[in-house]
Structures are given as structure tokens and as C-alpha cells.
TrEMBL record:
<keyword id="KW-0547">Nucleotide-binding</keyword>
<keyword id="KW-0347">Helicase</keyword>
<dbReference type="GO" id="GO:0004386">
    <property type="term" value="F:helicase activity"/>
</dbReference>
<dbReference type="InterPro" id="IPR027417">
    <property type="entry name" value="P-loop_NTPase"/>
</dbReference>
<dbReference type="GO" id="GO:0016787">
    <property type="term" value="F:hydrolase activity"/>
</dbReference>
<dbReference type="InterPro" id="IPR011545">
    <property type="entry name" value="DEAD/DEAH_box_helicase_dom"/>
</dbReference>
<dbReference type="GO" id="GO:0003676">
    <property type="term" value="F:nucleic acid binding"/>
</dbReference>
<keyword id="KW-0067">ATP-binding</keyword>
<feature type="domain" description="Helicase C-terminal">
    <location>
        <begin position="203"/>
        <end position="364"/>
    </location>
</feature>
<protein>
    <submittedName>
        <fullName>HrpA-like helicase</fullName>
    </submittedName>
</protein>
<dbReference type="Pfam" id="PF00271">
    <property type="entry name" value="Helicase_C"/>
</dbReference>
<dbReference type="InterPro" id="IPR014001">
    <property type="entry name" value="Helicase_ATP-bd"/>
</dbReference>
<dbReference type="Pfam" id="PF00270">
    <property type="entry name" value="DEAD"/>
</dbReference>
<dbReference type="GO" id="GO:0005524">
    <property type="term" value="F:ATP binding"/>
</dbReference>
<keyword id="KW-0378">Hydrolase</keyword>
<feature type="domain" description="Helicase ATP-binding">
    <location>
        <begin position="15"/>
        <end position="160"/>
    </location>
</feature>
<dbReference type="InterPro" id="IPR049614">
    <property type="entry name" value="HrpB_DEXH"/>
</dbReference>
Length: 417
């Protein structure tokens, strides 16, 4: 018998609000089924034209498209497909397209009225990355000026819905509950000097002894994953499968595929949202994540390891309750959790804004405000001065440069030198 997902209870309300208002914010907990059920519900509702869904991560985009296509009994590329940089599986009959960051922005920038598109969905919007923020801003402006019939849906499990809904002028639809309960366990005392890899490995062994099924452990990056895998290599009858963004797609699919025996998936935040890994019954959360941070003083972006936010921890715990009741071991204390930030900061506050400036220029926006100019001051020296060329008579090459999949500073160097 097919599992009834929690999202089913609010689909009539969601569709009614969308018909009435044209835009809606959907808040649903991890495991509710929003990523795969909402696009298909729109199709079943008789919505004409294509449905675009922005998915932040490539692995999740592929998985969502494959899951929806499997539900319809079709191959990917028929009714449901996906499009990302360097990889596309869509056809002339494709009605639902799952897009990764940058693709949607480019589509709206090149054709602001989005011909043939009836609805744009922004999934996992709580991550607040630049492409999602910019894509939503472009979509709202396109809807206001060119396409009043364009429907917009913003979805997340942990989003502060009030602020976004007020900004959009959209109603909020909330789905309660998740598919299965997840028991949370905290440390009795802080880890102290214990290395995170050793703590994760020890907790994985505990989870294997106490639970049935597979284990998903979250670590900051590839280095920590490999060290933890080395500490677990003596386990018999258990497959240890790394999962991180730099892996080839075939290896990523193999990492989440069912195993003959039990498996332990050691993953970065790539497995945090919009992804159901079959067989997972327990999650071990290191409480750490690696993020890109831009330093205006040096003009460089670097990776830093930080504690996750409460919203991210909730997303990770939700992976354990997708198919059955589960357990999540959190490698921090309740006291430490009280000091965690509720949500991750929007990327626009901490990222290099040169790509944003170029996208705004190609959209036809106004010159950057003083704060944006101060953030990008270093770009105006030497060859990188061309970043600001879109607002000058010499900006004729900006549209060609905007199609290059490289840093705006390198684009400027190619233009000027």
C-alpha cells in the first residue's frame, strides 16, 4: 500500500490559495513530501505550461526528478526532467523541470516573460543562497510587470515564513507533522578535545548496535569523511559510503543506492535537504558544516567550518524519519543547542557580490548602491574595473561575458586584457 504523505492533507488548501492569489508560501516539515508531491499535484490540477522548480543541490535535483518520473512510470526526460550546468535531461514533452542554482536566473534574464512557463517553485528557500534570492526577485518583478498569470510557490521546512510572505504579499500554508517520528538524543557533556571524526565513528558504532537499518552521518567536508571512513573500515558486513559534492554523479548515485547488507553513508550537507536515502533509520550529526565566506579585504572567498544552525539541525534529523521511526544522535549538549543560531544568514550578507552585480546589470538594473560599491571596491582596480562596465557606454560586451561560467573578475580580465 502506498504511503500517504503529510503534505497530502494541505494540497487542496495550497491549490486553492494559488488559484486565488497566484503566489503562496508553503511551510512543511522534513519528510512531508513537498518536493515531489507539489509539482505533480499542480500537474494533476490541470495547470497548463511548464512547471519550473529550483532545487539548491545537484544531487537533490536529480533525485527529485527521478522520484517524480518513477511515480509516473516514465523515464526522466519525458514528463519530468532536470536541467543543470553541464547536464540536461529534458524533452519536447517535459512539463516539470527541476533546475539547479544559476539556471533559473539565466532563463529569466534571457527571457523575462518566461514564455510557456505557468509556475515557478522555489524549494528549500530557507537556505537563502544568492541564486534563489535573485531568482525570486526576478520572478516577482516579471510577474508584476509582464506575467500577472505567473504562479509562484516558495517552499521550506524551516523558513521564517512571516517575513518572506509579507515581502511577497502571499498567504502561508502550513503542513503539520512528518511521515514518522524521530527521537532526538544529545550528549551529556561537550566533546571537549575529542576529534569530531572519532566522535562520529564511535556514535556510528553505537547506532549500528542499537538500531536496524542504515546510518547517515553528517560531517563538514571530504577530509573529515575520509578520516571517519578509515576509523570504520574494520566493520564487517557494513558498507561505508562517502557522499560529497565533488564526487562524480555516478558515484553519488551509488552512495545512496540500497546495499546488500547494512550501509553507513558519510555525507556533507549535500544530503541535508530534499533527499530520501532508502533504508536510513538513524542520523549522526556532527553539528558542523563548511561554508564559503567572502573577505572584502582580500577579495577572496574561503571555506570555514562552523556550527550548524537549529534549522539545519532539524533538516538533518528529518532524514531519519522518511521511511520509518528513527533516531538522531546530536553530538552537542542541550545547553550548547540553546546558543545555536535559529537560521543560517542569507548568503547575500556574506558572499562576493560581483556575480550579483553582473546579473543585475544584465537584467537592466540600476547602478549599485553605495554599500554594494564598497563591498566590490577591489574590483574597480586593474582589469576588474570592467565589472562595473554594464553601467557605462563601454558595457557592450556585458551580455557575452555574462554567459561565461567563470568568476566576474576573470570575465573582466578577458574583456580588458
Amino acid at each position: 500500500m502506498a504511503l500517504t504523505l503529510p503534505i497530502e492533507d494541505v494540497l487542496p488548501e495550497l491549490l486553492s490559495a494559488l488559484d486565488r492569489e497566484g503566489q503562496v508560501v508553503l511551510q512543511a516539515p522534513p519528510g512531508a513530501g513537498k518536493t515531489t508531491r507539489v509539482p505533480l499535484a499542480l500537474l494533476e490540477h490541470g495547470l497548463e505550461g511548464r512547471i519550473l522548480m529550483l532545487e539548491p543541490r545537484r544531487l537533490a535535483a536529480r533525485a527529485a526528478a527521478e522520484r517524480m518520473a518513477r511515480t509516473l512510470g516514465e523515464p526522466v526526460g519525458a514528463t519530468v526532467g532536470y536541467r543543470m550546468r553541464g547536464e540536461s535531461r529534458v524533452g519536447p514533452a517535459t512539463r516539470i523541470e527541476v533546475l539547479t542554482e544559476g539556471i533559473l536566473t539565466r532563463m529569466i534574464r534571457d527571457a523575462p516573460d518566461l514564455p510557456g512557463v505557468s509556475c515557478v517553485i522555489f524549494d528549500e528557500f530557507h537556505e537563502r543562497n544568492l541564486p534563489a534570492d535573485l531568482g525570486l526577485a526576478f520572478a516577482i518583478e516579471a510577474r508584476t510587470a509582464l506575467r500577472p498569470d505567473l504562479r509562484l510557490i516558495v517552499m521550506s521546512a524551516t523558513l521564517d515564513t512571516g517575513q518572506v510572505a509579507a515581502w511577497m504579499g502571499a498567504p502561508v500554508v502550513t503542513a503539520e507533522g512528518r511521515a514518522f517520528p524521530v527521537e532526538l538524543r544529545w550528549l551529556p557533556r561537550p566533546l571537549g578535545d575529542m576529534r569530531i571524526e572519532a566522535a562520529v565513528a564511535a556514535t556510528v558504532r553505537e547506532a549500528l548496535a542499537e538500531t536496524e537499518g542504515d546510518i547517515l552521518a553528517f560531517l563538514p567536508g571530504e577530509r573529515e569523511i575520509r578520516r571517519t571512513a578509515a576509523l570504520l573500515e574494520d566493520l564487517e558486513g557494513v558498507a561505508i559510503r562517502p557522499l560529497y559534492g565533488a564526487m562524480p554523479p555516478a558515484e553519488q548515485r551509488a552512495a545512496i543506492a540500497p546495499a546488500e547488507g547494512r550501509k553507513v553513508v558519510l555525507a556533507t550537507a549535500i544530503a541535508e535537504t530534499s533527499l530520501t536515502i532508502p533504508g536510513i533509520r538513524a542520523v549522526v550529526d556532527s553539528g558542523r558544516s563548511r561554508r564559503a565566506r567572502f573577505d572584502p579585504g582580500t577579495g577572496m572567498t574561503r571555506l570555514v567550518t562552523e556550527r550548524v544552525t537549529k534549522a539545519e539541525a532539524a533538516q538533518r534529523a528529518g532524514r531519519a524519519g522518511r521511511e520509518a521511526p528513527g533516531i538522531c544522535w546530536r553530538l552537542w549538549t542541550r545547553g550548547e543547542e540553546s546558543g545555536m543560531q535559529p537560521f543560517p544568514p542569507p548568503e547575500i550578507l556574506e558572499a562576493d557580490l560581483a556575480p550579483l552585480a553582473l546579473d543585475l546589470a544584465l537584467w537592466g538594473g540600476s547602478p549599485p548602491s553605495s554599500p554594494l560599491r564598497r563591498r566590490g571596491r577591489w574590483h574597480r582596480h586593474g582589469p576588474c574595473c570592467a565589472i562595473w562596465a554594464p553601467w557605462t557606454p563601454k558595457g557592450g560586451s556585458r551580455r557575452t561575458a555574462g554567459r561565461w561560467p567563470i568568476s566576474p573578475c576573470i570575465r573582466a580580465w578577458r574583456i580588458c586584457c
